[in-house]
Write a structure and sequence with these properties.
The chain has one helix at residues 2-60, and strands at residues 65-72, 76-82, 85-92, 95-102, 107-109, 116-124, 129-133. It is of the alpha+beta class.
Length: 135
């Protein structure tokens, strides 16, 4: 009699685990995708803020500058400032993707890819805008 009760208990526990494990797998895969989407949207917002502030500083003239504070997401592989565009390459489970924000003014500068809180200095240098990390 005791063996029958423990066997039935093991069978019920097995079915409960059989139903729970796929739910856990689905939960973790969805949360991973959500983190990648959030990182991508955060990188797009950063690129957009850089371009918007660069255009403002350019039209104000040469001595003007501003500093913006951003939180770089994880997975940023590189940040390039190419002529009139800011390109942020971000890695994910499906490979790397580029986030491009185009400006109406010439941009120069170097930004290293590093996560965390960063202050970006945007400075008008006459015919272009220089973008760099603030010290």
């Amino acid at each position: 009699m005791k063996a029958q009760v423990s066997t039935e208990y093991m069978i019920v526990l097995g079915f409960a685990l059989l139903l729970t494990i796929p739910g856990i797998i689905i939960f973790f895969s969805q949360s991973g995708r959500n983190v990648e989407q959030i990182n991508s949207l955060q990188a797009k917002q950063i690129a957009s803020r850089i371009v918007d502030n660069a255009e403002k500083v350019y039209y104000l003239g040469k001595p003007s500058s501003t500093t913006i504070k951003v939180v770089m997401p994880r997975g940023v592989e590189s940040i390039s400032v190419l002529n009139r565009a800011v390109v942020i390459r971000i890695s994910g489970s499906g490979g790397s993707s580029d986030i491009v924000e185009v400006s109406s003014v010439n941009l120069t500068g170097v930004l290293a890819a590093s996560g965390g809180v960063r202050q970006i200095r945007i400075e008008s240098i006459g015919d272009a805008v220089n973008i760099s990390y603030s010290r």
